[in-house]
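User: Predict structure, ligand glyceraldehyde-3-phosphate.
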Amino acid sequence: MTEGATMIEIFPEEQNLPAFCPAPPVEDQRDYLVGGQLHVWDGPLQEVFSPLPVRRGNQLRPRLLGRVPRLDLAAALDALAAARAAFDEGRGPWPTLGIAARRQVLQALRAGLAERRGDIVPLLVWEVGKSLAEAEGEFERTLNYFDETLADLERRRGEDAVPVTAEGIAARRGRAPRGVVLCLGPFNYPLNEAFATLLPALAMGNTVLLKPPKIGVLLFRPLLGLFRELLPPGVVNVIYGEGEELLEPLMATGRIDVLAFIGSGAVAERLVRAHPRPLRLTPVLGLGAKNAAVVLPGADLERAVRECLLGSLAFNGQRCTALKILFVHESLRDAFLDQFLAALGRIRQGMPWDKGVWITPLAEPERPGYLRALLDDALAQGARILNPGGGSALGSFFRPALVAPVTPAMRLFHEEQFGPLVPVVPFADFATIDQFLRDSDYAQQISLFGRDEAALAPLIDSLVNRVARVNLNCKCQRGPDCLPFTGRKDSAVGTLAVREALDAFSHPALVAMRDGREDRALLKSLSTSGRSTFLAPEAEG
Ligand code: G3H
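Assistant: Predicted complex:
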């Protein structure tokens, strides 16, 4: 059998699709949400395809999942106007509602989201190619993010209710919304990372213009009615269409106050530059990364291999936090590669619903070609693919490849592959890693594997100044969400985590007065009367 014929069997024929994860019905979506109304779009639609094709015998055909509106700029500008009107210079019902009441609405939003699990999880599987287990995990994590955010809001309310007195001034602290937030999430975590910015933006009283990613777009439809039902008109507006046509002109209006974007640095830079008053723009950006693992002499090899495998290949390596280059000390190189190869041979490749599967079809149609080009460049310069069949591809399916030795002359040494390629660089001296870190445009995280304290301590002390998180004997990752998730250089601007995100989407605000008896009585009365939501006491709500 040819390789292609073997690989085609990865894709099941229609009659063999599992009943527990059926393909969603193909629908034409014409509705989008602006100003509290579900508008019906009568213009062109965009087709949405699945990375899981239709197979008939030896034929693979694209599987259409549905169509979504391709709004024009006029419709997108209407949505922005609706968000601005709902904010109303901070006077709108949502920004002035107060934390306690907003918290109740967001609690209802969480409940509504939880009810839609059965609609959303299969869409993550069929549109993104994410394993069923990872899709369930993404959904659960989003609910947890709600819970932690709501708990943090409550904590803040308690802290802010205590007046601060100093130097003859008494003040009540709080946070004020920044204005209109443009929320743009990525395809790899389309639900979770949309809510990672949408939720804190709403919690702090902002209004939102949300455009779902091009891949991972269908799962937003079940949420439109929920936003409409629970939030005042114009607080969340959901638009669809070509990012390239809509986003820069939206930014160019100067009427976006916060750009919340998770995706590529090149796009983020274009959007930020399009804003005519950049000093008024708050960017909250989660961008690219090329996180390295460094396996030092004396490392626990079994653990290093297990974590490096998980870090580089879980969800096809399609995570900004994935380990994208492995530096292995020469003394351990052969043993590391042998053990990695053995472990790689055991990981499951297949369809998202297969139990324990790691490697599934890739969501981005252009990704297999890009990975092939990186591989060809590395092979032409002396690297080898160490695992049999590594790097072979059919359609959206790309078999993982362990590639060594990778050198600075190769593209794979520098570029963010965002796919199942595992480059290994043997090193003799840490200077190799120093150079990599110095030259890289990215600086998100690093994983150090080792047990020798004398070697680890100075590395930790310098690396914490160069990347945002040093992981000891474990892979890089975003969670838990109570920890600050950020990066240096071109990897991030701002911090996403429960508490830090609430700060990122708000300004500090104060009501201050001279600490005299009369004014103290006024403050107390304003606070207890319920007339001011900003000054509401802790017990309110
Ligand atoms: O793609 C970037 C994600 O935020 C990474 O999250 O480390 O939990 O996979 P993760």
